[in-house]
């Protein structure tokens, strides 16, 4: 709970929030950090209206209301074999009666980047 209180205070300022995100990347393994930083760059390019903040210790990207639209959970956080890129309920990904909101990722590729760019664009549409 102390980590969440610290996040809320830091996220009050977008610059402070960005520093928290950068600190979160530095704590990751090199492989997880690479994916996280590439996702970060893709979000900035694809949806510049979103801003970086931490969300329960994870890098996330929020709308103007401060609601996290998407987040990155590195594999090391919960000692899993893959990282997760997830979208919260504020993301506009609805597709009929069933759609995915989380994606496992083990490596950043051109195909992954293309798929994520489309999802990010849709999430903020």
Distance between the termini: 33 Å
Total of DSSP H or I helical runs spanning 4+ residues: 4
The percentage of residues in β strands lies in 15-25%
- CATH C-level name: Alpha Beta
Poorly predicted ranges (pLDDT <50, ≥5 residues)? Answer: none
Q: What's the main sheet like? A: 5 strands, antiparallel
Subunit organisation of the chains: single chain
Tell me the overall shape.
globular
Mean pLDDT: 93
Strand order of the largest sheet: 1-2-3-4-5
* CATH topology heading: Aspartate Aminotransferase, domain 1
Structural class: alpha+beta
- Secondary structure: number of strands: 5
Q: How much is the radius of gyration in Å? A: 14 Å
> What is the succession of H and E elements?
HHHEEEEEH
If classified by CATH, what would the architecture be? Alpha-Beta Complex
Helix percentage: 40-55%
Number of domains: 1
Explain what this protein looks like in three dimensions.
- The chain is of the alpha+beta class and 125 residues long.
- It has one domain (2-123): Aspartate Aminotransferase, domain 1, CATH 3.90.1150.
- Helices cover 42% and strands 20% of the residues.
- It has 4 helices and 5 strands.
- It has helices spanning 2-10, 14-26, 30-46, 110-123; strands at residues 51-55, 58-62, 68-73, 83-87, 102-105.
- It has a 5-stranded antiparallel beta sheet.
- A hairpin with a 2-residue loop joins strand 1 (51-55) and strand 2.
- The model has no long low-confidence stretch (mean pLDDT 93).
């Amino acid at each position: 709970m102390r980590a969440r209180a610290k996040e809320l205070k830091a996220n009050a300022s977008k610059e402070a929030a960005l520093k928290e995100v950068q600190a979160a990347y530095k704590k990751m393994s090199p492989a997880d950090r690479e994916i996280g930083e590439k996702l970060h760059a893709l979000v900035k390019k694809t949806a510049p209206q979103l801003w970086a903040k931490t969300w329960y210790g994870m890098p996330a990207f929020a709308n103007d209301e401060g609601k996290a639209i998407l987040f990155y959970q590195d594999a090391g956080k919960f000692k899993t074999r893959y990282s997760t890129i997830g979208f919260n309920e504020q993301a506009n990904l609805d597709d009929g009666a069933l759609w995915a909101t989380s994606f496992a990722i083990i490596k950043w590729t051109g195909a992954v980047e293309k798929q994520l760019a489309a999802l990010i664009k849709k999430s903020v549409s």
